[in-house]
Design goal:
The chain is mainly alpha-helical and 301 residues long. Helix content is 68%, strand content 0%. The protein is built from 15 helices and no strands. Its main location: mitochondrion.
């Protein structure tokens, strides 16, 4: 009962109308991703038609998991939600998914593409461990978290495209790490407003930047140097991912179109002289749909 209360209400499932039920679940996922992960929403629209609903379900799960930490007042409630999703994935692979729209859509995706269960479990386990308000000790810890969350999501997206390729997985690993690092930086103003800082301690210590510097929105050089070092690591991962271009099938490229948004964030950050609090970093990229289309047309990432 407690777990059910933590989940958003959804219309009862019509057991005798599977097609209608699947359509409702798919629509729920699309709308959730559109509202909470607009960049992922646009990227998914450029995927082959046969993969879109499955990827919307995957991204909807990612949204659900990412929202847990900020939507509960106590860690115990967060643990209950994570356990719900862990049990839901187990039930999906038993072909008895719970009557939750994201779980039902995921069940369809798993059956259609034979998705690998361990990537789901890695995402859930990593998000659960991150419920503690603990700062990353070093950049490697942040990269590990990004690998377990964002890279795992990319591995699943590749599977919906029918891609099973070691080189493509290597590229996905680096893109996921870059995305996780950039996401961490983008969240700095939000976390600072709540007197929280999650940037890697080792880099902050290297430049003698304290948590209080970020909390008060300091524009001093040492704070910008911290952001420069972290952003540089994200850039290295993107370049490494692109070094695999000639070794992976082009049919894998659509899975990596999130790099368009990541490039924009890094470019905007450079223009702002690595001032992570600059207003330009909080604006939506209105040219993203066009940029995504151009990159897709060029068959690149």
């Amino acid at each position: 009962m407690a777990v059910r209360a933590l989940l958003k209400p959804w219309a009862p499932v019509c057991r005798d109308n599977t097609r209608r039920n699947s359509g409702q679940a798919a629509g729920y996922c699309v709308e959730l991703v559109r509202k909470r992960d607009y960049e992922g929403f646009l990227c998914t629209l450029l995927l082959p038609q046969e993969s879109q609903n499955s990827v919307f379900a995957l991204r909807a799960l990612n949204v659900e998991l990412s929202q847990v930490k900020d939507s509960v007042s106590q860690k115990s409630l967060g643990l209950m939600r994570m356990q719900f999703w862990r049990d839901a994935v187990q039930d999906i692979y038993k072909e008895t998914p719970p009557h939750h729209p994201v779980a039902l859509a995921l069940s369809q995706a798993v059956q259609r593409h034979r998705l690998t269960k361990r990537w789901f479990m890695r995402m859930i386990d990593a998000r659960e461990q991150n419920l503690d308000d603990r700062t990353y000790r070093n950049i490697q810890e942040l990269e590990t978290y990004a690998e377990n969350t964002q890279s795992s999501l990319l591995y699943l997206i590749l599977e919906t495209l029918g891609i099973k390729d070691v080189q493509a997985d290597h590229a996905a690993s680096h893109i996921g790490k870059a995305q996780g690092i950039i996401t961490c930086m983008r969240a700095v103003p939000y976390h600072s407003s709540r007197r929280q800082v999650f940037l890697p301690i080792d880099i902050c210590m290297l430049h003698r930047a304290s948590q209080e510097d970020f909390i008060r929105g300091s524009l001093e050089k040492n704070v910008k140097d911290v952001i420069f070092d972290i952003a540089s690591q994200a850039h290295v991962h993107l370049e490494h991912a692109r070094s695999f271009k000639k070794r992976i099938p082009k049919s894998a490229f659509p899975a990596f179109n999130i790099t368009v948004a990541l490039d924009w964030h890094l470019k905007t950050l450079r223009k702002a002289d690595f001032n992570i609090f600059h207003p330009s970093l909080q604006r939506k990229n209105t040219l993203l749909p066009l940029s995504l289309y151009v990159r897709s047309w060029k068959q690149s990432y």
